[in-house]
Amino acid sequence: MEIVEVGPRDGLQNEKRVLPTAVKIAYVERAIAAGLRRIEVAAFARPDRVPQMADAAEVLRAAPRPEGVRYTALVLNGRGLDRALALEEAARPDEINYVVVASDEFSRRNQGMSTADSLAAFREVAARAREAGLFVTLTVAAAFGCPFTGPVPVSRVRDLVADAGPVDEICLADTIGVGVPPQVTELAGAVRPVAPGVPLRAHFHNTRNAGYANATAAVASGFGALDASLGGIGGCPFAPAATGNIATEDLAYLLNRSGLATGVDVTSAAGAGAWIGEQLGLAAVPAQLGRAGDFPGDHLLR
Amino acid sequence: MEIVEVGPRDGLQNEKRVLPTAVKIAYVERAIAAGLRRIEVAAFARPDRVPQMADAAEVLRAAPRPEGVRYTALVLNGRGLDRALALEEAARPDEINYVVVASDEFSRRNQGMSTADSLAAFREVAARAREAGLFVTLTVAAAFGCPFTGPVPVSRVRDLVADAGPVDEICLADTIGVGVPPQVTELAGAVRPVAPGVPLRAHFHNTRNAGYANATAAVASGFGALDASLGGIGGCPFAPAATGNIATEDLAYLLNRSGLATGVDVTSAAGAGAWIGEQLGLAAVPAQLGRAGDFPGDHLLR
C-alpha cells in the first residue's frame, strides 16, 4: 500500500511557524530515509496568502533526487503550473496535484470561483501538464463535507469526476475531517464507473478521530494510495484546536501490521515526526507511535 | 450499536488524580444524560494497589438508578465478588466484568497466577455470580498482544474462551493498544465457534491511533458492544505518554454518522468528556469531538 507523504506541503502549510528551506529539505530527507517514495513537497500558491510555501521553487531545487523518489507540487491554477514549468528541468516536480473544491461556497471562498469554473480551469492545466510529461492528480476537496454548507452529495463528487477530463489519479479529500467509513466505500463506488481505470487516492484528516478508520475503509475499497504527514502535523483551518492529517508513522504501523507492506519503517518515521514537531515548536505531535513505540511480530500468529 | 461507558472505571483507574466519590457520580450522571445505558462504574480491587477505585461500594450506593441503566463492576477474584454481593440489594452492580489475562507472564505480574489458574478462579466466580443473578462478562485482557512477551497467538485466546465455562458475554480487550483491524476479524472468527451464541464485546485503546479502525472492524465482525470512555481518558500504563480508551464521543460520532445509532448525543457526550478532563486537571482530553464539533446531516446524501 502506497503512502503519499504530504507533511512538507499540507502539513507545513497549516502550521503557524514558517520554516527555513533547509529545515524543509531535512524533513524531506528524513521522509526518504524512513522509506517514503512519493512526497508532496511544495505548493505554488500566492506567497502573500501562503507564506509557508513561498520558497516552493527553492525547495524543489534543493531536494535530493534519489532513484525512485517522486515529488509532487500543489498547483491551484494556470499561474501555478507556469511556475512549475518555468523551473529548470532537473528541479521540476514529477507530479502536480490540482485541487477542485466539491462545494460551490467553499470553492468561491478558497479559489474565488464556482466548482464548475474551477474544473474548467483544471482541464486546461491538466492538459498542459500532461503534455509537459507531468503526472496529474485531481484532488476533490471537501468531498466528504463542506465547512460552510454541510453535507456534500455523493452525486456531486461523481459528476465532478465525470467532467474532469483525462487525469492520472483522482484523490478524494476529507479536507475538514468529517467523513466516516461507509462514506469512503460509497464515494469509491460512485466515482469508479465515471473514471474507469483511474487509480484512486484518499486524503484524510483525523479531526474527529475517524481518519484511520477511513483509511482502513479506503484500503478495503481499492484505493491505491493514502496521504499522510509525518508527525500528523498540519491541523485543520476549520477546527483550529484539532489535529492534522493522519500521521504517516501511525498509518504505516496500522498497514504494515495488517499485512499491507508500505515500505515505511515506523520507528524511523516516528523519529522524523517527533523531529518536525520540535522544529515547529509543538509540545507534542498528534502522531502516537513516537510515544507508544512499535510492537513486534506478526499480528496473525496462530 | 451499544457503547459501554468505561470511563468511570478503566478511565479513572489509569489517571493519577484520585477523584472524590461525588465527582465520580457527577461523571456517571453526565454519561446517562448523554444517552449511555451501560456503565462500568467501579472495580473491586485492593485499595492499596488501586486507590482510584477504593470507594467502589460508595459509588455503587450513590449512583442514580434510572430505568434502563445497567452498572458493571470489575471483579478480579472471589474476594471482589464477595464485596459486590455484600452490598445491599439496591446497591449491587447489575453485571460483573472479570478479567483473565491471555499471556502467562502478564497474568502472573497482574493477577499473581498463570492464565490457567486465573481462568479456573473465573469459572468459580462466574458460577456464583450468575447464581446470584448477575450478568457476567469475561474480559480476555492482552488478547491482541502482551507488553512483556509480544504477540499473543489467536489459538491461545480461542482456547481460553473454550475453557471459560458458562458466561453471558466475552470481551476481547486490546489492553495495550497494539491491535490492527484484521486481528479483530481473525479473533472474532476464532472465538465464535467455541462460544456459540455468546455476544462479543471489544475493548480498544487508541495508543497507536488504530483504536477507531479496530472498532469499525469489530462492528463489521459482529461484535455487539464496544467499550469507550467519555473524553478518551485513561492513558495506558504500558505507554505512559499515550492516550487511553477510545473516546465515547468520537466513537459515537463515527457510529451514528455511519448509520449505526448508538443513542448517544455526541455534543452532550463531548461536554461530559471536556468536563471530566477539567476534573482530572488535564490540559486537554484525547477525545476530539469537543474541539472539532459535530457535523450535521446524513453522510450518505445522494
Shape of chain A: globular
Radius of gyration of chain A: 18 Å
Please give the domain count of chain A. Answer: 1
- What oligomeric arrangement do these chains adopt? homodimer
Please tally the β strands of chain A and state the result: 8
How much of the sequence lies in strands of chain A comes to: 15-25%
Q: Report the average pLDDT across residues of chain A.
A: 94
CATH class of chain A: Alpha Beta
Distance between the termini of chain A: 24 Å
Give the count of helical stretches of chain A.
Answer: 12
Strand order, sheet with most strands of chain A = 1-8-7-6-5-4-3-2
N to C succession of SSEs of chain A: EHHEHEHEHHEHEHEHEHHH
CATH architecture label name of chain A: Alpha-Beta Barrel
Explain briefly what this protein structure is.
The structure is a homodimer of 302-residue chains. Chain A is of the alpha/beta class and 302 residues long. Chain A contains twelve helices and eight strands.
Describe this structure in words.
The structure is a homodimer of 302-residue chains. In chain A, 39% of the residues lie in helices and 15% in strands. Chain A has twelve helices and eight strands. Chain A has an eight-stranded parallel β-sheet with strand order 1-8-7-6-5-4-3-2. Chain A has 302 residues and is an alpha/beta fold. The two termini of chain A are 24 Å apart. The model of chain A has no long low-confidence stretch (mean pLDDT 94). In chain A, β2 (38-44), α3 and β3 form a beta-alpha-beta unit. The first copy, chain A, has one domain (2-292): TIM Barrel (Alpha-Beta Barrel), CATH 3.20.20. The longest helix of chain A is centred in the middle third of the chain and has 17 residues, at 115-131. Chain A has helices at 7-13, 21-33, 56-62, 78-86, 104-111, 115-131, 154-162, 181-191, 211-220, 248-257, 266-279, 289-292, and strands at 2-5, 38-44, 70-75, 95-101, 135-141, 169-174, 200-204, 225-228. The interface between A and B is large, with 55 and 55 residues. Chains A, B: GO terms for molecular function: hydroxymethylglutaryl-CoA lyase activity; metal ion binding. Chains A, B: This is Putative hydroxymethylglutaryl-CoA lyase. Chains A, B: InterPro entries: Aldolase_TIM (IPR013785), HMGL (IPR043594), PYR_CT (IPR000891). Chains A, B: One of its GO terms (biological process) is L-leucine catabolic process. Chains A, B: Keywords: Lyase, Metal-binding.
